[in-house]
Amino acid sequence: MFPFLLLILLSLSWRISASAQPAEEFLRCLSLRFHNSSSITKLVYTHHNSSYSSVLKSSAQNFRFTTPSTPTPLAIVTPFNASYIQATVYCCRKHELQVNVEKATAWVESGATVGELYYEIARKTRTLAFLARIGHTVGIGGQLSEGGYGVLLRKYGIASDNIIDARLIDAYERILDKKLMGEDLFWVIRGGVSKTLEQNATKLVHQWQSIAHKFPKEIHSSISIAMVNFSEDGKMTIQAESILYRALSIIGLPLETLLNRTQKSALSQTFFKAKSDYVKQPISELGFKGLWPKFYEDEAKSSVTVLVACGGKMDEIPETEYPYPHRAGNLYSILYVVNWEEEENKNSKKFMNWMRRVYSYMTPYVSKSPREAYVP
Ligand SMILES: *[C@@H]1O[C@H](CO)[C@@H](O)[C@H](O)[C@H]1NC(C)=O
Ligand SMILES: *[C@@H]1O[C@H](CO)[C@@H](O)[C@H](O)[C@H]1NC(C)=O
Ligand SMILES: *[C@@H]1O[C@H](CO)[C@@H](O)[C@H](O)[C@H]1NC(C)=O
Ligand SMILES: *[C@@H]1O[C@H](CO)[C@@H](O)[C@H](O)[C@H]1NC(C)=O
Ligand SMILES: *[C@@H]1O[C@H](CO)[C@@H](O)[C@H](O)[C@H]1NC(C)=O
Ligand SMILES: *[C@@H]1O[C@H](CO)[C@@H](O)[C@H](O)[C@H]1NC(C)=O
């Protein structure tokens, strides 16, 4: 596989927030700037539009951010080409996918989802792939700017390592490619942060953490820890499930599933809080044993904690070589997710507090100074 060439362009849907009487002025500005002023009625949503909230919610994976207490944007703009993006940028200081199989490169505008990119590649070839995440509803722009971390990471690294060029529009409406934007900006847009069963479950996880990062690169290995209701008498027990992917496939689902932008993630369904950690030294059995009781707490009934092996290609890349920093030296990463239902949202604090307790408990066992986190 060769690296893909990606044209990333910001952005499918822009949420504009501003102060003082902004709506009218902003809209007047747009109508002057849009080449075809009638398109403002198709591309701009304000609170007056009945579909405003459905547009806003359509991309919300975490319903915590759709409750009435969360401030909403003044306007949502859905520009479909660079002219509209330039106009929008000016006023506030979609997307075609082309896959070129011969060169093993792809141009993609950042409004496309990861699923749409996978879909276009899969339609043209079954021998090439792009290495981004499993959850396919995320926009390419967001995915690449967070690094872009998926099941091929141990074999090829992550998505943003494979960006050959990018075009972005700056606050002065200029379209900048890699050469024009310069190394620093190109660094930042690719995920850069500042340089610088009880007993059995314990054994499984304890052993896994020492070997998983040494698995062949072709294997993506993770362990998912959650409460399950095994027995008829309803006794809950912790299940630690090890998952190996040998091939990236969405088994049994039609390819078109990749185009579904409203599909919810398997890890997080409705209201949730997630945090992450990186582990550099194996955690002792005692350390895990102290963690398990937290999963029996009431708040944890729909929580899931996933350990994802690092190593492979990621171990060969020094932290300073590419923008995404979590590379050599990490055995695995941990993703903690706690989910709750809409009717429980008035008690969201108790779930947030559960997460804080878990995160605090893990402090001695995970990376320090600084404590690393994956910031999506
Ligand atoms: C203006 O844009 C709308 C939709 O964006 C399109 O339907 C219409 O044909 C365009 N008119 C011109 C003159 O380009
Ligand atoms: C929003 O509402 C205005 C005024 O009713 C209408 O002209 C416009 O077409 C609506 N915009 C969209 C994107 O539906
Ligand atoms: C964007 O679309 C508008 C309306 O279809 C068109 O007038 C304009 O030339 C397009 N701009 C680019 C850069 O494709
Ligand atoms: C734990 O492992 C032992 C021996 O490997 C096995 O006999 C036992 O059934 C396992 N317990 C559970 C709950 O899986
Ligand atoms: C566990 O499963 C049993 C049988 O399916 C069910 O009766 C019980 O309510 C479940 N317990 C919980 C806590 O979900
Ligand atoms: C997309 O996924 C959502 C949630 O899983 C489902 O409700 C919806 O019907 C799907 N849409 C299509 C077009 O398949």
TrEMBL record:
One of its GO terms (molecular function) is flavin adenine dinucleotide binding. InterPro entries: FAD-bd_PCMH-like_sf, FAD-bd_PCMH_sub1, FAD-bd_PCMH_sub2, Oxid_FAD_bind_N. Keywords: Signal. The keyword Signal applies. Pfam families: FAD_binding_4 (PF01565). Residues 97-175 form the FAD linked oxidase N-terminal domain. Residues 1-20 form the signal peptide. The keyword Signal applies. This is FAD linked oxidase N-terminal domain-containing protein. It comes from Gossypium stocksii.
